[in-house]
Amino acid sequence: MMRFLNKKLFRYLSAFLFFNSAILPVKSSSALAAWEIKTNGVLELRTKTNTNLNAYFQKANQIYGDRFWVDFPGELKTPRTIKGNGPIKEIRLGKPNNGKTRLVIEFREKTGLTPLTWRMVGLDQNRWRIQLFSPKYSFKKIGEGVVQKSRKNIKAKKTSGYMRKRVYDKLQLPNVKQNKFLVVIDPGHGGPDPGAIGIGGLKETDVVLEVSKIVEKLLSEKGVKVKLTRKNEVDLDLSQRVSFSNNADADIFVSIHANASRGKRRDINGLETFYFRGWRGRLLAKRIQKQILRVSPGSPDRGVKQGRFYVIKNTKMPAVLVEIGFLTGRLDARRLEKTAHRKRLAYAIAKGILEYLSKAG
Ligand SMILES: [Zn+2]
To answer: What is the distance between the alpha carbons of residues 109 and 260, in angstroms, rounded to a whole number?
Structure first.
């Protein structure tokens, strides 16, 4: 479906585009899915289907250069600024008010823009394009996400290929004796207790539950019996987790958590694994820590440490508590919100566990 918008831009602060009628509820996530400014000066956008966009242009003033911006329904998670090049000074993604997302493109001085000729074109139900400046400028493309569907598929395939190579080869899981071991995996928190809340409202309970379920699957495929202390969002206190594991007579206990820093400092990232006592606990912690670091390049190694956490102190078997990153850290949070990274962490934890079982189990 091709749709063209013929209305021209006014010189000052004029809405020139009102499309489709569906307006998302205030609390929904941003309708902006991806954007890219191409070398030929075309801005392309991908949005949720049936999004109502408003676009504006404002001439330079004492503070800002010429600015073009588009408002989208739905709230942006992480406001950010991206450095421009060529005729573009910078790109800002912000939330002008609750429930909104704004993409601002600020131009350098004397770029000879002709906003009166600009037209936003709807390419299909969720793609848009507008020519902002002439291809004569030398400009390196800038964008976030994948604007075109077809390219998205190609990229998705590439990513899974990368995953296969990186994860399935490099982290090939060791074999252990079939049906010999029972591992209890304890996804931290749950139910009314979401655990740590990170950047963009990322919840510890969600992250650790998904990771735990993947660990369960991977270990099961290796002939290891696995029990999860919880499989959904239920309220489970610490003593229940301990008695569950002790009654099951598990060989090892692994509690999975994600961290938050005091004051939600975005510069604090890293991974750490705790044990309470014994060389077995320490060995298990070391194996897991080593593997999770391998799939988290750049994230600091906070080490293997002794910790007095209730669940590792009161379980009878070798027990560890692993912190798979900081939900409040810029680097870690960006990864932890993605299923691909959760899978990598799950592989790493499973590998650490299997290495331990094959040696000390
Ligand atoms: Zn926790």
So the answer is: 43
